[in-house]
Design brief:
Layout lengths: L2 H7 L11 H13 L2 H15 L7 E10 L16 E5 L2 E10 L3 E6 L5 E8 L18 E4 L7 H7 L4 E4 L4 E2 L2 E2 L1 H14 L3 H10 L10 H19 L1 H9 L2 E7 L6 E2 L2 H4 L5 H4 L12 E6 L6
Parallel strand pairs: 1-6, 3-4, 6-7
Antiparallel strand pairs: 1-3, 1-4, 2-3, 3-5, 4-5, 8-9, 10-11, 10-12
């Protein structure tokens, strides 16, 4: 266990040993029994929303295949019955497909690249079957590759105000429609953002192959992974908000001259005295000044 991980989980090797594999296994089973993976994912998104990172009006739907070892057998000398094979292009895969709102399946916000919905299916289930599970209902635009074309009825039912921005087929009987191809290229500029969460899940958090048998166990880990991916995607914004000096507008009451803290600070219960902030106020005709100082404890 690395020093940073020990600090994160609060383990002091001078007082207690690192938990063994059985302890970690029992903790994982506890998450599975009570379906806590999804609850942790939702709690992470609530925290991000409190920091101003909210889901906007665009959703990108996509799916990716989490491969499974084709030779793994169970006690009955058979493969996992919940995994299936499918073909992508000219290549065959054996595993579990994820569909996003995260194919896994996932649904990703087109502005912040945050995952707001996720579901998992076997690899032989078509992407469009779970599109409704990936929409939160307040979308104004829905993006997706050509696997999601022709789903205008489902989009209208799940998100009444959303416009269908999924890619269209531009080649028919060998004839290329240049206009439609150009539209697809423009849409793909937005749709490509969904690949960032997929890359983090597989390359940063190591979920390139299934770890456990059965869809339920892998789904629980994927819920937790999606929550971690959301923190990873916006890590720079969170660190910047925590470390950099605050420079925001503060209102000055014309009669008393008292400084009113900005909403960002007031919503957290901060005050000038508590935060020991140094203020520089430049009054203007409109009674607005520049609030500048560090809002971190001990500054």
């Amino acid at each position: 266990m690395t020093p940073s991980m020990r600090r994160f989980v609060g383990i002091d090797l001078g007082r207690e040993p690192v938990p063994d594999e059985t302890t970690i296994l029992n903790f994982r089973h506890l998450l599975e029994r009570h379906d806590l993976g999804k609850a942790l994912f939702e709690r992470v998104n609530e925290h991000l929303a409190s920091q101003g990172l909210k889901v906007a009006g665009g959703t990108i739907a996509d799916a990716t295949i989490i491969t499974a070892p084709s030779s793994t057998k169970n006690e009955a000398k058979a493969r996992d019955p919940e995994t299936h094979q499918t073909r992508k292009g000219q290549r065959w895969y054996f595993g579990i497909g994820l569909r996003s709102e995260p194919m896994l399946h996932i649904g990703v916000d087109s502005k912040t690249k945050l995952i707001h919905s996720m579901t998992t299916t076997a690899a032989n289930v078509h992407d469009a079957k779970v599109l409704g599970d990936l929409l939160h209902g307040n979308e104004t635009r829905v993006y997706g590759d050509q696997a999601y074309r022709g789903q205008a009825t489902m989009i209208c039912a799940c998100a009444p105000n959303a416009k269908d921005f999924t890619n269209r087929r531009y080649r028919h009987r060998g004839v290329v429609d240049g206009v439609e191809r150009g539209k697809n290229r423009t849409k793909s500029g937005v749709r490509a953002k969904v690949e960032h969460p997929f890359g983090a899940i597989k390359r940063v958090f190591g979920f390139a192959k299934v770890r456990y048998r059965g869809l339920a166990k892998n789904t629980q880990r994927l819920w937790v992974s999606c929550g971690l991916v959301n923190l990873f995607v916006v890590r720079h914004l969170l660190l910047r908000a925590r470390q950099q000096p605050c420079m925001r507008r503060a209102s000055v009451e014309p009669r008393t001259g008292r400084i009113r803290l900005p909403v960002y600070a007031a919503s957290r219960g901060w005050s000038v005295r508590d935060c020991r902030a140094r203020l520089v106020v430049a009054p203007t005709p409109a009674g607005i000044g520049l609030f500048r100082g560090s809002l971190s404890e001990g500054s």
